[in-house]
Amino acid sequence: MAFATLGCKVNQSETEAMKDLFQERGYQVVDFGDSADVYVINTCTVTHLADRKSRQLVRRASRRSPAALIAVVGCWAQTAPAAVEELPEVDVIVGTRDRGRIVDYVEEAASGKQRVNRVQKLDAAINFEELPLDYSTRTRAYLKIQDGCDQFCTYCIIPYARGPVRSRVPERVRAAAESLVTSGYKEIVLTGIHLGLYGRDLEPGTRLLTVLRLLEDLPGLERVRLSSLDPAEVTPEILDHLASSERTCHHLHIPLQSGSDAVLKRMGRPYTAGEYLDLVRAVRDRLPRAGITTDIIVGFPGETEAEFQETLTVVREAGFSRLHVFTYSPRQGTPAAEYPNQVKPQVKEERSHRLISLGKELAMVFHASYLEQELMVLVEEEREGGKLAGYSDNYIRVRFNGPDELMNHVLPVRVLAATSDYVEGEVAKTSPPLITA
Ligand code: SF4
């Protein structure tokens, strides 16, 4: 059988989980490019392009193995089951619930020789679905602890695809982390669809901080990284924890989306640009070395040049260490897709280029501020340009010379040169003796 995945880290982890479920039942996994008896396509629907790619993967699988059984799973299936049903090649349709039963559904379709559609409503009664853990990555493990979102930003289809907020109970998070550490991971990245809403569906008072405290004394775990938090979720308590924590990385990915209050209002984002900059200042006060990264959408409906200028001003003032720039694409089923004054594609393109180059300029400033200083780097198990590579705790990409024995170790690297994408260095003299330069 073969798998293909579109979309986010959460989707990728869920595919790895489904792979485990099939392998436990004796299935052999092959590449998606090879012929197979069963294909599972874990879809994304964040843009129209994602839907189109999902269809293309179905057709590719069917061309490769016309007799194969094809299962379409995930966000596109959840939001548009009728569109998936229009594809005659598809035998099994499962949304963003019950992926844990995917093997049963495939075998049901195989034996019954009829299509199985198990897309279900995402009502408030559903709990967090515990799927097998993702051991597919090397060095850094992605641990999904939360699903769903109910913020309904006007451009976003995710709440319709993923449903209400649900969380993995804290004890299960600890147990999962223990298994990942036992299998050799030094860093765990806590992920979710809206991580900052973790715990809202659990015992009163349970929240992300509960989990961070629970992981603070886990033997063998060297780093905990947070995938993304919305501004309101970066609370003083979270900052206090990061400031006193031995292992929670000083890296905060806090989506801004726009620097214009008028645009933020049209997006339905619950903060102003001024409040966002106040937060950045609070983070810098509490965590001076923190890497602050963000997402920005350019070309949101009605975005004027003046509003875009506001975004450039706020981004420059925030001094981000890394910028992810997305050009707005109308998503059917979201309010913003119906908004007037949709921005022309060439204007979006031109604005995203200006923002990307500002992002590179700011990243260069951040990287250069570490020249002649040491960064603690978790060395990954693949070389980059022939050199060892890894991320610092504050999310700077670091490259340096050294033997393979250094892989999967956290060690100090002295920064010698900086670019806008990464820094180059050497193993610091202060490095523990077992590791020689
Ligand atoms: S917070 Fe907004 S952008 Fe993020 S998943 Fe929820 S609705 Fe989408």
List the helices and strands and how they pair.
Elements: E1 2-5, H1 9-24, E2 38-43, H2 48-64, E3 69-74, H3 75-79, H4 81-85, E4 92-94, H5 102-112, E5 116-117, E6 140-147, H6 158-162, E7 166-167, H7 170-182, E8 187-192, H8 208-215, E9 223-226, H9 236-244, E10 251-253, H10 261-267, H11 273-286, E11 291-298, H12 305-318, E12 322-327, H13 345-368, E13 374-379, E14 388-392, E15 397-400, E16 410-418, E17 423-427
Helix pairs in contact: 7-8, 12-13
Question: Your description of this structure?
Answer:
By secondary structure, the protein is of the alpha/beta class. Among the domains are: about 1-115, Methylthiotransferase, N-terminal domain (Rossmann fold); about 125-250, Transcription Regulator spoIIAA, CATH 3.30.750; about 375-425, Nucleic acid-binding proteins (OB fold (Dihydrolipoamide Acetyltransferase, E2P)), CATH 2.40.50.140. The protein is built from 13 helices and 17 strands. It has helices at about 10-25, 50-65, 75-80, 80-85, 100-110, 160, 170-180, 210-215, 235-245, 260-265, 275-285, 305-320, 345-370; strands spanning about 1-5, 40-45, 70-75, 90-95, 115, 140-145, 165, 185-190, 225, 250-255, 290-300, 320-325, 375-380, 390, 395-400, 410-420, 425. Strands 1-2-3-4-5 form a five-stranded parallel beta sheet, sandwiched between helices. Helix 7 packs parallel to helix 8 (about 210-215) and helix 12 runs parallel beside helix 13 (about 345-370). The model has no long low-confidence stretch (mean pLDDT about 95). The structure holds iron/sulfur cluster (SF4). Iron/sulfur cluster binds near residues 149, 193 and 230.
